[in-house]
Amino acid sequence: MVLQRFSWPYGGQRASFCGSFTGWRECPMGLVGAEFQVVFDLPPGVYQYRFLVDGVWSCDETKPVVRDEYGLISNEVLVENNAQPVVQPEPSSIRGINMDDGTILTTMPPEPSSQNPGVQVAVFRHGISGILLHNTIYDVVPLSSKLAVLDAQLPVKQAFKIMHDEGLALVPLWDDNEGTITGMLTASDFVLILRKLQRNIRALGNEELEMHPISAWKEAKLQFYAGPDGAAMQRRPLIHVKDSDNLVDVALTIIRNEISSVPIFKSLPDSSGMPLLNLATLQGILKFLCSKLQEQAEGYSLLRNQLLNIPIGTWSPHTGRSSNRLLRTLRLSSPLNSCLDLLLQDRISSIPIVDDNGSLRDVYSLSDIMALAKNDVYARIELEQVTVQNALDVQYQVHGRRQCQTCFQTSMFLEILEKLSMPGVRRLVVIEQSTRFVEGIISLRDIFTFLLG
Questions:
Q1: Which end of the chain is more exposed for a tag (fewer CB within 10 A), N or C?
Q2: What gap in Å lies between CA 151 and CA 200, rounded to an integer?
Q3: Any idea of the CA torsion for 209, 211, 214, 219, to the nearest 10 degrees?
């Protein structure tokens, strides 16, 4: 064994160290004079290492550096057996002693179970950033997948029927006049159209919907749904990403714009004239990420932590956990209109539906509204008179009964990630195991907000 000193002489308030020989888990550094130091008792060999200084990963540019398969840069050191061997302690022991008034000697990296939770999170986020920054959305989206695009001149009624029949919650719109994709038609649009019809604001009759094009609805929406000052809504440019964009930028685009997916445009146009390559979703990115994590899961102790130890999700006050959002639940007897109000006002995609005891019965999602397009059900109902139970019954008649995707506070983080990477799963309802009492909800947006925080 050889004593090897590592130092960071470039300032900072706090510094930690991690290396290939610690499993990339962080170890504290002691302040000696004006520099941070740590000493390891190592066998001869070649090792890579990095420093975490005031929350920023850094390398010493005056020392040899190497780049790994993800493009991350680390320092590299050759430890040679040119000194007297040092007696190694028992494998179970972990020594930390002060040398030279502050240098820390570490003979073994800490076990995952004893690692500080904040350190676990920092190490995990560092690894995730390495994967996401050095892969593009082109690497994630299957190029052979089916993609529906609607003409902006298609009648609204026909468009929503197609969306229902194809099981689509949103679809890109093609504008012949501009020769490109100009917008998206979503389940939220369907809700707003229903509201317009129900409130009789220059109401379009069912017959007019047969001919009223999507483009006209999009323009009219800017006037119908004015702001508090009466000013019309402003059309915003189509949010999109390029196929060369890295996965961090794509995920942040989806999160910051509070959308469920974003069109991927080709970086280089081709002879087809269609710029759209596919749609990017958080679920697709997470599926790719999980495939990478499976190759190196042993290196991240956070993956083996229970959900109750991880600051993520939206929680009921009775759990004692804090969250940025208020956990919303509704009863089966609640008016559908109230449910739609919450979905739109809170800009959330789903609400757990509970019984009188607060136990989970189902989840009503914004995309479930598309079931009302079946056989023009929306034209024969009054939203104020329809309950959530009624709306779910229509959903069951169209698509059959479904199983809610759930987890427990004791579920491992890796299990959470794997469940949310499954096709069609956008959130997990956290329930108490014996009573099914709703304790919280974990969404894809929560996951990426945490990973990229």
A1: C
A2: 27
A3: -90
3-state secondary structure of 77: strand
Q: Please tell us whether the domain made up of 2-110 is placed in CATH 2.60.40.10.
A: yes
Taking residues 187-207, what's their average pLDDT?
67
| Cα(61)–Cα(67) distance, integer angstroms | 13
Q: At what angle do helices 282-296 and 444-451 cross, to 10 degrees?
A: 60
Terminal Cα distance for the chain, rounded: 39
CA 214 to chain CA mean position, Å:
30
* 3-state SS class at 318: helix
Give yes or no for residue 192 having a pLDDT over 50.
Answer: yes
**Per-residue pLDDT reduced to its tens digit, 172-190:** 999 998 889 999 999 888 8
Domain with CATH 3.10.580.10 in the chain: 138-284, 296-451
Average pLDDT over residues 270-298: 86
DSSP single-letter state for residue 119: H
Phi, psi for residue 29 in degrees, rounded to 5 = -115, 145
Q: Would you put residue 171 in left (φ > 0), alpha (ψ -120 to 50) or beta?
A: beta
How big is the chain by its Cα radius of gyration, in Å?
A: 27
Q: What is 197-252 written as a DSSP string?
A: HHHTSSPPPHHHHTT-BHHHHHHHHHHHS--TTSPPPPPPPPP-EETTSBHHHHHH
- Look up tokens 């320092």; give the residue: 75
Alpha helices in 78-213 (DSSP H): 117-133, 156-166, 187-199, 206-209
Burial label for 379, CB within 10 Å (0-12, 13-18, 19+), is middle
Tokens matching residue 181: 């994709």
The dihedral over CA atoms of 172, 174, 180, 183, expressed in degrees to the nearest 10, equals -40
Among positive and negative, which fits the CA dihedral 61, 66, 72, 75? negative
Residues 234-247, mean pLDDT to the nearest whole number: 88
249: left (phi over 0), alpha (psi -120 to 50) or beta: alpha
Report the candidate in 372, 421, 420 with the shortest Cα–Cα distance to residue 399.
372
Fold of 296-451: CBS-domain (3.10.580)
pTM: 0.72
The superfamily (CATH) of domain 138-284 is: CBS-domain (3.10.580.10)
Chain segment 339-385, per-residue pLDDT in tens? 998 998 888 899 999 999 999 999 999 888 888 877 777 767 777 78
Q: Where in the chain is the domain with CATH 2.60.40.10?
A: 2-110
